[in-house]
């Protein structure tokens, strides 16, 4: 488990090929996530264009990619929907564990 936790996020997805819950892989744009995490995103208000640099930092300039603000918002909504579904699964498992399993396990 320690080896798995040390892997980068993009490498972890390849181990989820056989899971019972199917992730919508269109909900994840790892280049955009990386750019946001490293503050390499610029938004032009007039053109409504989001420009991000997935492979570059502040010292070296990498290749910039662009998307419209509408496309960016759609990606956020799809990601939110995916996280919301996962939240319901986690909540269900939590309730099962503490309200059903532990109740009958202690008697």
Explain this structure to me?
- By secondary structure, this protein is mainly alpha-helical.
- It contains four helices and three strands, in the order αααβββα.
- It has one domain.
- The protein has helices at 2-5, 9-12, 30-37, 69-105, and strands at 41-44, 49-52, 65-68.
- A hairpin with a 4-residue loop joins β1 and β2 (49-52).
- The longest helix has 37 residues, at 69-105.
- It is elongated and about 60 Å long.
Low-confidence stretches: none
Major sheet characteristics: 3 strands, antiparallel
Q: What structural category do the secondary elements indicate?
A: mainly alpha
Q: Please provide the count of β strands.
A: 3
Report the total helices.
4
Strand content: 5-15%
SSE string, helix = H, strand = E? HHHEEEH
User: What strand order characterises the main sheet?
Assistant: 1-2-3
End-to-end distance: 34 Å
Gross geometry:
elongated
Number of domains: 1
Portion in helices = 40-55%
User: Average pLDDT value?
Assistant: 82
- The radius of gyration over CA amounts to 19 Å
Secondary-structure map:
Elements (H helix, E strand, L loop, with lengths): L1 H4 L3 H4 L17 H8 L3 E4 L4 E4 L12 E4 H37 L2
Antiparallel strand pairs: 1-2, 2-3
């Amino acid at each position: 488990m320690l080896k798995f936790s040390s892997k980068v996020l993009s490498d972890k997805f390849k181990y989820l090929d056989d899971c019972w819950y199917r992730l919508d892989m269109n909900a994840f744009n790892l280049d955009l996530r990386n750019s946001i995490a490293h503050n390499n995103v610029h938004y032009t208000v007039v053109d409504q264009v989001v420009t991000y640099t997935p492979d570059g930092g502040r010292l070296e300039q990498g290749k910039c990619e662009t998307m419209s603000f509408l496309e960016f918002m759609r990606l956020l909504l799809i990601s939110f929907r995916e996280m919301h579904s996962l939240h319901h699964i986690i909540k269900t498992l939590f309730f099962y564990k503490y309200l059903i399993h532990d109740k009958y396990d202690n008697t």
